[in-house]
Write a structure and sequence with these properties.
- With 169 residues, this protein is mainly beta.
- It starts with a helix and ends in a 12-residue tail after the last strand.
- Helix content is 4%, strand content 53%.
- It has one helix at residues 2-8, and strands spanning 14-21, 24-35, 41-49, 56-64, 70-79, 84-93, 96-103, 106-113, 138-145, 150-157.
- The chain is globular.
């Protein structure tokens, strides 16, 4: 879900959206991205959802190196009173990722290696905010799935401008 929200924000510094389940509004989302003076990119995503057992907010913050390599990623889940339910922090280096996880007070650490020659730079992180891709541009890289704590290969392709309807518009 969060990666789909990032797509909506690719042309703007900040986008706010309502979240619906069918016809019922169940929450809101905000995506902010900023180019920093050192060339890095900061992405912040916040999704707040209401439910029968109470609400939850998921906040994600990711920093990317100027070449698109991940530098740091943080995910925090809080309940409607602001009590932290879970926190995941991943830092990245040439060997892979180093994670610290705190779920309901239980702290664990893990190292998730990725071969030094496997690509982890995602140049598409800078498409439209800094770089204009050509139609047909393609990036294949490895992305860390924080919930599974494993690397997955992803391919992103720019197919060109397309019209889409959002909320009937």
């Amino acid at each position: 879900m969060i990666h789909g929200l990032l797509l909506a924000a690719c042309l703007a510094d900040q986008v706010s959206m309502d979240v619906y389940s069918g016809e019922k509004k169940v929450g809101s989302a905000r995506v902010t991205q900023k180019l920093q003076t050192d060339g890095k990119k900061l992405v912040q995503v916040s999704v707040s959802l209401a439910g029968p057992q109470g609400g939850v907010t998921v906040r994600e913050e990711a920093t990317y190196q100027p070449n698109g390599e991940p530098a740091r990623q943080v995910v925090e889940v809080t309940d409607q009173e602001g009590k932290r339910l879970a926190t995941l922090v991943a830092t990245f280096d040439g060997t892979g990722a180093h994670m610290v996880s705190d779920r309901a007070g239980k702290r664990t650490t893990a190292t998730i290696p990725l071969g030094r020659t496997l690509p982890r730079a995602n140049a598409s992180e800078f498409w439209f905010i800094r770089d204009q891709p050509k139609v047909g541009a393609k990036v294949t890289y490895y992305r860390l799935d924080l919930s599974k704590q494993e690397w997955e290969q992803v391919t992103v392709r720019y197919v060109g401008k397309k019209s889409v309807n959002v909320g009937g518009r």
